TrEMBL record:
Listed name of the protein: Probable dual-specificity RNA methyltransferase RlmN
Binding site for [4Fe-4S] cluster: 126, 130, 133
EC number annotated for this UniProt entry: 2.1.1.192
Domain Radical SAM core: 112-355
Main enzyme class: transferase
Organism expressing this protein natively: Pseudonocardia endophytica
Keyword terms, alphabetized: 4Fe-4S, Cytoplasm, Disulfide bond, Iron, Iron-sulfur, Metal-binding, Methyltransferase, rRNA processing, S-adenosyl-L-methionine, Transferase, tRNA processing
Record's catalysed reaction(s): adenosine(2503) in 23S rRNA + 2 reduced [2Fe-2S]-[ferredoxin] + 2 S-adenosyl-L-methionine = 2-methyladenosine(2503) in 23S rRNA + 5'-deoxyadenosine + L-methionine + 2 oxidized [2Fe-2S]-[ferredoxin] + S-adenosyl-L-homocysteine; adenosine(37) in tRNA + 2 reduced [2Fe-2S]-[ferredoxin] + 2 S-adenosyl-L-methionine = 2-methyladenosine(37) in tRNA + 5'-deoxyadenosine + L-methionine + 2 oxidized [2Fe-2S]-[ferredoxin] + S-adenosyl-L-homocysteine
Protein origin, superkingdom: Bacteria
InterPro entries reported in the protein's UniProt record: Aldolase_TIM, Elp3/MiaA/NifB-like_rSAM, Methyltransferase_A, RNA_MTrfase_RlmN, rRNA_lsu_MTrfase_RlmN/Cfr, rSAM, rSAM_sf
Protein family membership: Belongs to the radical SAM superfamily. RlmN family.
Single GO molecular function: tRNA binding
Classification of source organism: Bacteria, Bacillati, Actinomycetota, Actinomycetes, Pseudonocardiales
Note: Reaction proceeds by a ping-pong mechanism involving intermediate methylation of a conserved cysteine residue.
Length: 369
């Protein structure tokens, strides 16, 4: 096997301070005892944080002033907005977050006619080294904590409710497609998914069917997620159906080949009953050839089944100075036609935010520069 520039274990850094979202509801009594407050005070705190989307203890008028200092210690500022940019008439808003140690992560909040979606980060940077991705070019700084992940969602939900997207909206969808490889931060991402989907006061109460977890194809982690039995959508960042090119575009393919990844995706779809999404960034003269569209449709039909898979074609959002560019519209349309001809559903993702560096990792890279 060739030597790979992949990082599965994040560099060791000082852990973020403990946060309410890091605490399993079953552990709240012990934490309350440690803080010297009654257990129901933590339940009050959770109702405000998860249910009312506030982290300001002083605004919690049902909590006595004497208990607020202890409880405030469970709501430290973990992710603080550094830069916020809007476009698409206010319907898209990207936020660059700074962690307690100065690391940077990103999220994008988007309003559509029928939903509001936030795309969140699970790591600061990424160790998967995909050459066309701005995050992959920057490398991995560290894993985000459960609370750092959850608080991106909590703040997005509050912002959407308060009309930051030009009109009030209810956050209904969460996609783990920001910075990082979610399944390389498995334990914290899984805990975050539970906090996001459990009803208040245990969590934010967003339907699990509105949550999508992406991966470049870490097969053992996909198998593990399959056994969890959570009805979240699995999105596989495939980007090409042939191993020869994928070894370069998605270096993890040197460990787990296309067939292995698709077989794991089939088992996930079969076990959970959820249709798998295949993410495919269409790159001019690299992976957009008609024969690759034909091969993609054939492999998905044979290895997953047409009723269990959907191709999400992504027009590449090129990064400054990159050799990679989006495919011309006629090429994109022909690619879609050929995948559909194999009986596989295929749609083109609505492009958002090119003028605000909305591609994953771009805003963080510009800040570091």
């Amino acid at each position: 096997m060739s030597s790979l520039p992949l990082v599965f274990d994040a560099p060791r850094r000082a852990a973020p301070p403990r946060h309410l979202a890091d605490v399993d509801p079953a552990d709240r009594p012990a934490v309350a005892m440690e803080l010297g407050v009654p257990k129901f005070r933590l339940d009050q705190l959770a109702r405000h944080y998860f249910g009312r989307l506030t982290a300001d203890v002083d605004a919690m008028t049902d909590v006595p002033a004497s208990a607020r200092p202890a409880l405030a210690g469970l709501l430290p500022d973990l992710v603080t907005p550094v830069t916020e940019r809007s476009c698409d008439g206010g319907a898209t808003r990207k936020t660059l977050w700074r962690g307690h140690d100065g690391t940077l992560a990103e999220s994008v909040l988007m309003r559509y006619p029928d939903r509001a979606t936030v795309c969140i980060s699970s790591q600061a940077g990424c160790g998967m080294a995909c050459p066309f991705c701005a995050t992959g070019q920057g490398g991995l700084q560290r894993n985000l904590s459960t609370a750092e992940i959850v608080d991106q969602v909590r703040q997005a939900a509050a912002a959407a409710r308060d009309g930051v997207l030009d009109e009030p909206a209810r956050l209904s969808n969460v996609v783990f497609m920001g910075m990082g490889e979610p399944l390389a931060n498995y334990k914290r991402v899984l805990a975050a998914v539970r906090r996001i989907t459990e009803p208040s006061p245990s969590g934010l109460g967003i339907s699990a069917r509105g949550v999508t977890v992406s991966t470049v194809g870490l097969v053992p982690a996909i198998e593990k997620l399959t056994r969890e039995g959570l009805p979240v959508t699995l999105a596989v960042s495939l980007h090409t159906p042939d191993d020869e090119l994928r070894d370069t575009l998605v270096p993890v393919n040197n460990r787990w080949k296309v067939a292995e990844v698709l077989d794991a995706a089939r088992r996930y779809a079969t076990t959970t009953g959820r249709r798998v999404s295949i993410e495919y960034a269409l790159i001019r003269d690299v992976n957009d050839q008609p024969w690759r569209a034909d091969l993609l449709g054939k492999l998905l039909r044979q290895r997953i089944g047409t009723s269990r898979v959907h191709v999400n074609l992504i027009p590449l959002n090129p990064t400054p100075g990159s050799e990679w560019d989006a495919s011309p519209k006629p090429v994109e349309e022909e690619f879609v036609r050929r995948v559909r001809a194999a009986g596989v559903a295929c749609t083109v993702r609505d492009t958002r935010g090119q003028e605000i560096d909305a591609a994953c990792g771009q805003l963080a890279a510009s800040q570091r520069a």
